[in-house]
């Protein structure tokens, strides 16, 4: 294109696809001033102005504001610096949009009322420090005034929800559910009762902190229950009775008879008292929020174990 070629504002509009009104606005703002004017006063633009206008359009499509574009064109700032700043702004905008999407998806899933929508929106926007404080306050209330195992509760308190800077929708949804769970009066009552039982057991000398070996035993027993369930066996089957005998023998203390139906019934009641799906859900949600490996539910296996002990 010859350097001397000039275009009217209408020709510039046809070449760029921009409305004449927009080009005139950019021209008046000094972003793309006319190269010269015709004898009749019409604006004329050369190839350089065309290229400048294309750059303005590109930057506007990328969301860059007019003041920043003016500084870039005047060489007061580098396009690279504009891009870095704009990427940061877009990242923040994307984060907020994902928060909104997570809330709206939860609204659709729950068929929420207006009050619940407002609550979920506030929870989704809660800053990290407030999330951590929510957990600290929860566990402080759960052990307040009770002589509970400090090491165990320090471990429980240490597991905090840590949303990444760019959370997935399922992580945001899990956080909303988690925050609602720890603020639910029924759930708080459930965990408080567990704390009171632990304090009572410590007072009578019956409390023992779960050992690593004991946890491994439970993992094995749960796996056996899963195998029996997959095989279609009942809790009072030979495999169910064998599993109940293992659990009773592994759980009996001095002076306790693992064959005694009364002991097994008491053991089943103790296990059942801590077997609430909401307590399991607490850890499943934390795993999703923090990107930990998924925690499968053991409810069906635990029901098998309880029935086997009671059969």
TrEMBL record:
Lineage summary: Bacteria, Bacillati, Actinomycetota, Actinomycetes, Pseudonocardiales
Coiled coil: none
Bias (Low complexity): 237-251
Keywords: DNA-binding
Highest rank taxon of the organism: Bacteria
One Pfam family here: MerR_1
Annotated ranges, domain HTH merR-type: 6-75
Molecular-function GO terms, alphabetical: DNA binding; DNA-binding transcription factor activity
Name of the protein in question: DNA-binding transcriptional MerR regulator
Positions of region (Disordered): 229-274
CDD domains per UniProt: HTH_MerR-like
PANTHER family: HTH MERR-TYPE DOMAIN-CONTAINING PROTEIN, REDOX-CYCLING DRUG-SENSING TRANSCRIPTIONAL ACTIVATOR SOXR
Tagged with keyword DNA-binding: yes
Organism: Amycolatopsis jiangsuensis
């Amino acid at each position: 294109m010859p350097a001397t070629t000039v275009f009217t504002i209408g020709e510039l509009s046809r070449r760029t696809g921009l409305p004449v009104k927009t080009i005139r606005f950019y021209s008046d703002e000094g972003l793309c001033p006319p190269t010269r004017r015709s004898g009749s006063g019409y604006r004329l633009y050369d190839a350089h102005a065309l290229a400048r206008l294309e750059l303005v359009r590109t930057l506007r499509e990328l969301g860059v504001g007019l003041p920043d574009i003016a500084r870039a064109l005047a060489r007061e700032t580098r396009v690279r610096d504009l891009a870095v700043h704009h990427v940061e702004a877009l990242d923040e905008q994307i984060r907020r949009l994902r928060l909104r999407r997570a809330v709206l998806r939860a609204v659709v899933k729950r068929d929420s009322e207006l009050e619940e929508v407002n609550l979920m929106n506030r929870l989704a926007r809660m800053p990290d420090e407030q999330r951590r404080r929510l957990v600290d306050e929860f566990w402080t209330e759960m052990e307040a005034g009770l002589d509970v195992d400090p090491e165990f509760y320090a471990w429980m308190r240490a597991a905090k929800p840590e949303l990444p800077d760019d959370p997935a929708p399922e992580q945001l949804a899990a956080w909303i559910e988690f925050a609602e769970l720890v603020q639910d009066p029924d759930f708080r009552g459930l965990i408080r009762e567990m704390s009171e039982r632990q304090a009572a057991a410590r007072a009578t000398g019956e409390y023992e902190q779960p050992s690593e070996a004991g946890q491994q035993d439970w993992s094995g027993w749960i796996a056996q229950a899963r195998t029996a369930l997959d095989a279609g066996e009942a809790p009072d089957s030979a495999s169910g009775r064998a599993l109940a005998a293992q659990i009773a023998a592994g759980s009996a203390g001095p002076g306790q008879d693992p064959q005694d139906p009364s002991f097994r019934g008491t053991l089943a009641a103790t296990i059942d008292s801590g077997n609430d799906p909401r307590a399991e859900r607490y850890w499943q949600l934390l795993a999703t929020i923090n990107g930990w490996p998924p925690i499968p539910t053991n409810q069906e296996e635990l029901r098998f174990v309880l029935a086997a002990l009671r059969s």
